[in-house]
Amino acid sequence: MSLGLPTRLVGREAELAVLQDAIAQLRTGTGGVALIEGEPGIGKSSLAAAAGAAGQESGCTVLRGTAEQAAHPLPLRLLGDCLEVTQRATDARRAEILRFVCAERPDLLLSNTVHTAVIEMLLTLIEEDCATAPTVMVLDDLQWADDASLDVCRHLASIAAHLPLLLVLSFRPVPRGSGMRQLRAALRGYATTTISLGPLGPDAIHDLLSDVAGAPPGPALVELAAQASGNPLYVRELVESLVREGGVTVGEHADLRETSLSTVRRSLAAALDSRLSFVRADALDMLRVASLLGREFAVGEVAALLGRSTIDLSADLQEAVAAGILVDAGQRMTFRHPLIRQALYDGMPTALRVALHQDAARALDGIGGVEPQRVALQLLESGRVGDRWTRRWLADTASALAVSAPRIAAELLDRELKHGVADERDRAAFSAALAQILVGAGEHEKAAVRARQALTVSREPADRGRMYWVLARALFSSGDNDAAVAALDQALEQDLPDAWRARLLASLAMFQRAGSGALEAADATARRALEIGETAGDTFAIAYALTDLWLNDSVQRRHLSALDCLDRALETLNATDDHADLRSYALHARIFTLQNLSRWSDAEAALREARQFLLAADRTDDARFSVTAAVLTYWLGRWDDTRAELDSVDQSVSAMTYRGLRERGPMWLCHGVAALIAVRRDDRATANAHLRAGLRQPPVTIADRENTDFLLCAQALAAEQNGDQHLALSHLGDLLTRKPGEMTLTHQWLPTVLRLALAVDDDSAAAAALEACRAEAAAEQVPARATAAADWCTGLHERDPAPLRSAVDHYRAVGAPVELAGALEDLAVVLAAHGKTTESKHLIGEALDLYGGFGAVWDIRRAEGRLRRYGISRGARGSRIKRPAHGWDALTPTEHKIALLVAAGCSTPDIAQRMFLTRRTTQTHISHILGKLGKRSRVEIAREAFNRDPAAIPTDL
């Protein structure tokens, strides 16, 4: 460590440098005041001590005093100790002051009666010290100082600037009496430097851990230390407790033993609990109760648990906020440090905690507007099973809880079922709710078991209809399509309410097409579902059947009819606040259909509309729309945005579900789009990683196949990149024909198939690609993407510029830059073959500019190689300055906008809403910005934005 700092001062080098500069100024006769403010344990005293040491090294006189915590501190005790006005004083001036004070009250040193003369004598003493040598006066823990000492500090502040005196004052935010408030107000008018100590950054915490543990920390220790939220004292307490208990292994790295946490929690709780002694007892009791509610809580919840009014709690809450224990989080309060909350929580006996959690559940349930998951968390923490009130509450709220907090609901339901539920209706309801949660979580085999258990005890027709629904979906999603269809057939033979009959028929229609491609059967089943649903007036069944018909129309390329089905489905769903998942699916489908119609700007508008709905429905991180957005932005050439969308869902792919479709679909799309971008950008390591992950599981059904086209194209281009065009062509062979009922948009890849076929002189493959693309175009209800692709393929196959020009004109008119770049490249090659060099050179320059904008460096090399055979080089038009990898200029347009919004003070949710992104995608962009700028916080992003582009920072938010 630099500057020889004590361990607790790691990461405070910049703050110490400020104090050292102030000490250096003392040589010129200029002094001032330095305030060091921060919550307990943040390093104030250590920094103050380091300032004193720096003063001594500079030849200054250093005076230091620390205020003692006491109920009734003696007047001027702090100043007396600091200036050594004690009975041991040998200096004549100090002895004189001491005699004067003792004459006033001989029974007390520096007694209650404080005269102006005493203050004047102390001030004169300090001035005389300053006349002898520059002086650094350090007063620590000022929050405990008596008002008389604070009054002297105010006088000192008024003269410090005119003396070689640096007054260093260190204090906590609380307690903040009238004397402290007056001192702070007075200091505003003087040469005051305020140093507010906040949390340490990750690098400083890493150094601190190394010093305390004796070796660089391992990942588990770093993760645990993060709970201290950057407070160095709490990090020390945590690690020292672990070391004492033998919970840390030290070798090349210091890391946790597997069982260390359970052994250290009690000692850590006791150590941190003692640090809260400065908080009043009533406030501390309130904080202990609040710790039951988790890190974040509502004031009304604590009031209900304590049986007190909010007004009664206000003083305790304000003290906790001022102390830095709690912070304002909008409508709620939150503990600043997880470790403080844990210490408060662990400080209670286990039996008391269990009972309090049970009481808290009932109290929260009695508060209007409290989410069921808040109650469920209390029940989960209580650990009690079989409680009558708990089971009644679960029976009443299981359905709602399964939607809002599926993991918590699953654990509670499973716990009760394992314990044994005698009531048959409760057992059926619990099994049904658990089955629905499990199928949503992707645990299909367990879901099927629970659904069958529910069916054995369910007697209500509607309940049985719901369970057959869940059972069929679990079977289909686990890969057993035949069993799913059989389960639905069995259900439909029973006496069910019309609403559930319609829903099960709609589900059957989806499975008939997705499983085996039985399009005619699926269409007939969907229309029957629609008819029964309309008769029953069931919104869900109507909308679901219409999405079936949308899919069937899309397979047959009747895109206008498909769009009409979606609009009808959304109109139906708009009439109710229910069925958010189905509405989300319909909105997703609408974006897809608008792309099929080459209505790209409308597709973007539909994506914004969808995300507005998700925001209103509190589903802003629905990962499905990040995949949809990634596909859309891929075709629009905004590949950096595409990568951000994909990076944001990388860890949650397994949790994504499309109603009626296997969860693997989004996984294939995620890896496929990411791999294709990586190949075209010549990032071979990334491309290979995504190809391995995406190709690990082969497709089984029609629904599987139609999600793998991006992967196949990426695999083909990777082979071409490696010089094997025959292998590349073979990878794309499956795209020459669509299986019955298959959705795959083969036309968007067929120009690539035809280009490769021509490159290897495979005339049959080239003819097959042209025929397949023309068939796609002929099937279109109105000319759109497939028609443009057919023109492209025709021009390439026939070496005819005219149809290629038609494709280029289409892509240019509708705003499809990725397809435009490819068509321009092929048109330039055909024109070059006809000897039209000038026009070819102009068009290839435009194509290369587009490729450069995408970052498609491999496409640039391929295009240049194809034209080089005709003596055509890149030329001035095609040259492009590459965006740097780091710095402000490395930011993409989206990242630039987000950086400006960060500088404007917008939160991540605010930015997500303004930019029509998910919170995860927004955070991914912010992480990319931090990496490119080499920064560690949003504050540093804001500072860079103000330095680089202050005029562009929004001011109208």
Spatial shape: globular
Main pleated-sheet profile: 5 strands, parallel
Assembly classification: single chain
Report the total helices. 48
Poorly predicted runs of 5 or more residues: 1-7, 105-114, 651-663, 876-881
Roughly what fraction of the amino acids lie in strands? under 5%
Given the helix and strand composition, which structural class is it? mainly alpha
What share of the residues lie within helices?
55-70%
Strand order of the largest sheet: 2-3-4-1-5
Q: From the alpha-carbon coordinates, what is the Rg to the nearest angstrom?
A: 36 Å
Distance between the termini: 43 Å
Q: If you had to describe this structure to a student in words, what would you say it looks like?
A:
By secondary structure, the chain is mainly alpha-helical. It has a 5-stranded parallel beta sheet with strand order 2-3-4-1-5, sandwiched between helices. It has a 3-stranded antiparallel beta sheet with strand order 8-10-9. Strand 3 (135-140), helix 6 (147-160) and strand 4 form a beta-alpha-beta unit. It is globular, with a radius of gyration of 36 Å. It starts with 12 loop residues before the first helix and ends in a 9-residue tail after the last helix.
